[in-house]
């Protein structure tokens, strides 16, 4: 276990990078000492982002893998999809700690090509990366140093279904996920879809059954419950800045009381600091987790239709990106996974 | 067919009543001449609602069934549930035209008691009321004069499913409705749930499988497709003023191509002025219908899971309340159902 | 007075043009028969804007002044600034009725150049256009057929100050306007400033004392009160779709009671259908006018500081653009100015 | 200087109290060990506020001054106005450290009675309290232990004007403050004004020249610049959760260049950790400070009108309430005032 203190961020000017800068400022051990972007000029970061004034005295530098490893103890890739797959090799070869927030190392080569419509990373590199669902750290990953941080929708969905999938309780023919996300999930780029007038006072479904987080959900569920091969998954846009709300409707393979289902959830998550299972029939809302690394989960069973409704909520920028990334680095650094992440939601 | 011109509104100070006043001001034949509320004092309506200044010169009066029928040609009940059931009798006996926006006359007595937790109307009165899904006017209702205007969620859901239910195509075990509504659906009363701080930047599910619109949905679907006895139905609150978004996930009883399903929808709705079926795989959003009496419907089929996703959107205050009520009175008055309702959504 | 019925819209795909299409659909006499844009292809308008489906059966055509005049009775220019100045000449020469929603014909050539940083229209053309503040139609403009429709901020500000300026009551050294607008005022173009994440839950001031509506405000105030040569004017962005809120703080040149000031306002606006002066000390809010052509005005006097606070609110897309444009064409066509514009705000 | 570690909060269930709980959870030295409310029952705080689950294990107790002082080192009063004036005496007499977030100890008895319409605290108690504008700690307050934490509007306004007032540069006849606040400033109580439908997509001015923060602004400005006796001050409601935006328009008593004014600001605030003066002509927006204890200030001068526009922005719940309260207790405890308050705004 190496001592990790000096942190570099590649892709520091996107939403994910800026959230890392915000959260890491509170971390008692990790200290951001270098920030990188892809453009040629090298401004100070607070000249580009005035809200960082007085908090960081850093200059954006051009990417240089050798210098990053020389001067830092770990690096976050907060880059768009298709970037880190071309940058990762020297870090993987050097076993240098990397948390990759992009989708480049989450899937098999063929799945990546199919869902991202891009050339995948080299398969030998892919094999050395580990999918890092931080609340379920894998035993065999103890030596992995390249962590593929899960997607935001995937995190919320997998934590909603894990207790059932791990016990082979999901009926693979009856799993419907209606997922909704705030706008920050769509990133910084300008598009008609992110224009205020088109989002405010609106709600729209996009990419039904085509979202690129679907394969990583299926891949992980399949590991837990072999019979799962696909999932019904739609994504919609909420007129809010942050938050993911998963409404999952599932049937079970066994006849089991709502109380027993609830018990399964509380047991599974008893020692997970960041997962809060509500009382049976109490459903969480987005505000309770925005600004935190929590996943709140609620359950409601309909005896007429035999559908179980599972609601899970996260902050897509924290638990769904930067927060889970820090949680993963905490684990890699041998720290309690809550280090620097004990955040409470704003009530008003 | 009677000539209907002078209109009274009972419950004019609630959201539904105010929306009737707004829409009827544009109607070429109907003219609001009397407004009623339940409180004792009798202010002018524009002193209570300054936005009506210059548009209506009316005084709120106390309810008097005899005077209403004497001075008007038809009446809208825009009252809360539990009110019109005690006021309806003289109107029904006189066969005086009534459009009732509340839930009091939509259900059987036992369903009403079960879902509304209130004493139902007299069953002999209930029998004389007709459930008025305005885009599917019933042949046998030609002599009914007491129209139970459908609920907002029910309208959007029934129009989403009608073409399938009417052809016995819905698999009753696989119908999941994830419904979302803007805040105006919850009405004017003050509650923690309607406080700005608790709604803004939030999203929450409420009353899962317990919303009082469920029985009217099941009742009507059952008329269309005898095998339907229940439905999986959850409701969530969107941080917007207006709009309902229905995400329906259904499996079909027959193997049928997406193109054929789409054809069924376009055929069913070919002559319905207020229903617009999008091209296959194009999904409507809320903004396209807010401010209008339209229902926009979109379809997307997932061959892996065999689930059909149906999206339908309406303005809950117009198609889901006041607009459909006017559409119903248009039909009763022998006018084209679009009279006074050819409204276009604001784009910006 | 010519009979005007067939209407063309140039720039039909911007916010202003789409709002004209929406409002004119309700007009009893004007009928949009042709729409023009600047791009080369000619799609149907409802294929580009699905919310228009079933309401307009029009194809976007390329601009052709001869055809426009041949086939129509009047034209609206809903183009960006810098466009109509190059298109206007044939219409002006033919005395063909034009309502120009852009800023191209509102100012003197030198003011235009200074504030818009563009080449102005030919001064001989400028002279033949009339600034059309619709609630104060000028006597000498009776023969003008090219109407420069006022800017949104200018409309709300001028109507807030007119009664005082017309009586030389404004102290020119103490006129502070703090103006706020919803996002639709900024138009359709994509920019960091219109990205949802940057607008939602935010408020920002922009272009302090540099907004291009300032010179048209000063120009008109100066006509009313010769001593006015400049104005303190800031503009801010509200996280809402529509609405302008003007907070004007002024000192008066005479000692006059609040009641007398209020009387001056009610007298000035007694016969203006679209201006509603609230009771003294009652201040209007944006919701009361959104969706309407109204200007609501409120007054509050502070005897300690001797500042009069004037609040005026409009819907920037209606009274501030398309609505006033129709009001102006109503006047040109000899119709009551309220024709097709008797709209009530949505309460919920 | 006493060692302060154990903290009690009286009024822990209001917005201010909940924000204290949220922020103090991050504080390295202060530790909330007791929470009080006024109701009779004693639930655990996380049963009432699920978002606190896992973060605080506290039971709400009934107020008892003796027990509070016995078991804690300092107390925050986060009570509504009119409460702490009746609770303060034993704490003041014992010189027990109190930070009072309410308005009860900010004003003279007569001002309090006039603006709050309530009986004031005992004048001998009032004299022992100190107005705690935390960025300008007073020398003579070194022994004060009862700190009246400033109001939110007052904080943002005073920091906007301090550099000018301290140099007698404000023209007392030309100071116009147009202040806007998000909804959390209005607190938790249910009212028509806080119903989502009435706030969302709206903007309204309230209490023009009557807000209860006006007298504390004037009182403090008067201390800095003797000639100031009143101020023109209006308050408006923004449709957002958090944030205050002050637009101040002032004339100066001397002819001074914009650059020199800007210099005055940067000099005054050079060593204040929480005040960030933007470059001349750059104006801050609300998002840059929400979630932080910062005050961002921008300046823009209009040579035509000779008005200086000053913009200042704060998070009303942090700098305007709980954050400044902690800053004040840091000072009282001899800690750097930034302790536990080095927070960065969320960018997305």
TrEMBL record, chains A, B, C, D:
It is an enzyme of class 1 (oxidoreductase). Its EC number is 1.2.1.38. The keyword Oxidoreductase applies. GO terms for molecular function: N-acetyl-gamma-glutamyl-phosphate reductase activity; NAD binding; NADP+ binding. It is found in: Cytoplasm. The keyword Oxidoreductase applies. It catalyses: N-acetyl-L-glutamate 5-semialdehyde + phosphate + NADP(+) = N-acetyl-L-glutamyl 5-phosphate + NADPH + H(+). GO terms for biological process: L-arginine biosynthetic process. Pathway: Amino-acid biosynthesis; L-arginine biosynthesis; N(2)-acetyl-L-ornithine from L-glutamate: step 3/4. InterPro entries: AGPR, AGPR_AS, AGPR_dimerisation_dom, AGPR_type-1, NAD(P)-bd_dom_sf, Semialdehyde_DH_NAD-bd. The active site is at 152. GO terms for cellular component: cytoplasm. Its main location: cytoplasm. It holds the Pfam family Semialdhyde_dh. It comes from the Bacteria. PANTHER family: N-ACETYL-GAMMA-GLUTAMYL-PHOSPHATE REDUCTASE, CHLOROPLASTIC-RELATED, N-ACETYL-GAMMA-GLUTAMYL-PHOSPHATE REDUCTASE, CHLOROPLASTIC-RELATED-RELATED. Catalyzes the NADPH-dependent reduction of N-acetyl-5-glutamyl phosphate to yield N-acetyl-L-glutamate 5-semialdehyde. Belongs to the NAGSA dehydrogenase family. Type 1 subfamily. This is N-acetyl-gamma-glutamyl-phosphate reductase.
